[in-house]
């Protein structure tokens, strides 16, 4: 009996049918039912705080991170392709020069052909990847718009619910006031006309009661918040999709920066212009791949090499405030100027508006007008790298010239200085001339030195010989 009692009180083992699937089925949400009455104040506050309690900024942050990663990947793969193309072109140029010097005919170079074949395969892969990344970029931008539409739709539902509740409350107050007034009127009439009421009751025994329509009750039927949210969201998406691709993406700064960054990676110089945003999308819905260049025509044909050189020179590698090389540059959206981030932000510590520190620029800037332009950063870094390489090459050339200089060069320079000193000494008194001759005789080694005019001729001859030797 005791064992039976213990067995009966023990918890039975769960059956296979009562596993996770059965438990999840028991916690399934019931079917949604629209509210019969307006939301109370607590529910209205909860709906209004929905965008704050369920923060959509987390989703936006993840979309921004994906966008930045996509930008970096697109630039990196195109940078590598550009570097490979430059190396192959250098090899071909060097080997063509060697064949011309040796008088050989172009019979084909298997190793060079293999390099070009590998480069073409890499170009096809990179172009395909860039095209897919461009499509993904547009999807990310669409996702950011959807998040914006969701937040707007939730706010619209909360506002409509609040307005509907206030309308219903005022309507109910009007109805209650009319009901109380009609009851008071009926009581007053009943007290003074009891006899007449009895006669009227006898006459109207076969007539049913009639309730007139309340004019204040002519309000629109209430909509559920979920229906308002869905309708607002669908309307916003429909309006967005109805715009052309040029309007959706051609004016979006994030998409413009993506196209600019890819074009800068494919064409590091400014010689190849980028297509304008109006030509990024075709009428049939296709998209011009990033990197397609603009054909110079019309007024652009008159653009000379000097104009291109001037356009390159407009990018400075030094901050106008610190006068030092950029380390973390940020650019202004109002004017085409860049500044060191820490330096320009220090100015905003004193006031909310700062005039552009570049001479001749009168734009008033705020912190919102400053942003990091990845293309400008790439151009500045490229110019700084070119400066460093040029300085290293100049330093190496100076060292090579010092090492390769003839031994007599320094002697001739020293001798020229001595001759100048001798010319100055000759202007002195005659008493100093024997001492001068004695000094020259003491320091002279070998045959006597020729006179000064012949000495100048010897220097000229020596310089000519050096030029011939260098050629």
List the main descriptive attributes of the protein structure presented here.
471 residues; mainly alpha; Herpes Virus-1; 3-stranded antiparallel sheet; two-stranded antiparallel sheet; 64% helix; 3% strand; disordered N terminus; disordered C terminus
Main sheet strand line-up: 2-1-5
The arrangement of helices and strands along the chain is HHHHHHHHHHHEEHEEEHHHH
Strand content: under 5%
Which residue ranges are poorly predicted, with pLDDT under 50 across at least 5 consecutive positions? 1-11, 13-24, 169-173, 206-220, 293-313, 410-471
- Biggest sheet overview: 3 strands, antiparallel
Helix share, percent: 55-70%
Give Rg in angstroms: 45 Å
Structural class: mainly alpha
Number of helices: 16
Rough outline: elongated
Span between N and C termini?
Answer: 120 Å
User: If you average the pLDDT, what whole number results?
Assistant: 71
Total strand segments: 5
């Amino acid at each position: 009996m005791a064992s039976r009692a213990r067995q009966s009180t023990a918890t039975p083992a769960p059956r296979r049918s009562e596993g996770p699937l059965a438990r999840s089925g028991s916690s399934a949400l019931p079917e949604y039912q629209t509210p019969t009455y307006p939301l109370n104040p607590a529910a209205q506050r909860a709906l209004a705080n929905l965008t704050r309690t369920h923060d959509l900024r987390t989703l936006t942050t993840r979309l921004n991170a994906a966008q930045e990663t996509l930008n970096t990947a697109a630039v990196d793969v195109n940078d590598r392709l550009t570097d490979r193309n430059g190396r192959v072109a250098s090899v071909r140029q060097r080997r063509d020069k060697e064949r011309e010097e040796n008088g050989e005919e172009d019979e084909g170079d298997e190793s060079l052909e293999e390099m070009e074949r590998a480069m073409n395969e890499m170009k096809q892969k990179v172009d395909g990847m860039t095209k897919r990344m461009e499509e993904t970029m547009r999807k990310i931008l669409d996702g950011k718009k959807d998040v914006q539409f969701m937040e707007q739709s939730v706010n619209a539902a909360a506002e409509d619910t609040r307005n509907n509740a206030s309308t219903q409350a005022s309507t109910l107050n009007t109805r209650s006031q009319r009901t109380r007034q009609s009851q008071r009127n009926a009581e007053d009439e009943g007290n003074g006309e009891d006899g007449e009421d009895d006669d009227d009751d006898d006459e109207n025994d076969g007539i049913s009661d009639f309730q007139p329509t309340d004019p204040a009750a002519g309000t629109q039927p209430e909509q559920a918040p979920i229906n308002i949210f869905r309708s607002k969201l669908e309307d916003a998406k429909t309006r967005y999709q109805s715009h052309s691709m040029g309007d959706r993406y051609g004016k979006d700064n994030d998409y413009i920066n993506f196209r600019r960054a890819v074009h800068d990676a494919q064409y590091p110089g400014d010689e190849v212009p980028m297509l304008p945003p109006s030509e990024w999308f075709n009428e049939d819905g296709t998209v011009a791949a990033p990197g397609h260049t603009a054909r110079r025509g019309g007024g652009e044909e008159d653009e000379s090499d000097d104009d291109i050189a001037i356009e390159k020179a407009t990018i400075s590698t030094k901050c106008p405030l610190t006068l030092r090389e950029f380390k973390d540059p940020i650019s202004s959206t109002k004017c085409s100027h860049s500044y060191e981030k820490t330096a320009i932000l220090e100015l905003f510590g004193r006031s909310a508006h700062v005039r552009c520190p570049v001479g001749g620029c009168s734009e008033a800037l705020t912190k919102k007008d400053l942003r990091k332009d990845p293309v400008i950063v790439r151009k500045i870094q490229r110019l700084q790298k070119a400066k460093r390489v040029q300085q290293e090459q100049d330093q190496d050339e100076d060292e090579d010239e010092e090492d390769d200089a003839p031994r007599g060069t320094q002697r001739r320079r020293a001798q020229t200085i001595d001759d100048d000193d001798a010319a100055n000494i000759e202007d002195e008194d005659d008493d100093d001339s024997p001492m001068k001759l004695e000094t020259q005789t003491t320091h002279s080694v070998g045959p006597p030195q020729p006179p000064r005019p012949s000495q100048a001729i010897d220097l000229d001859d020596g310089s000519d010989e050096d030029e011939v030797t260098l050629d």
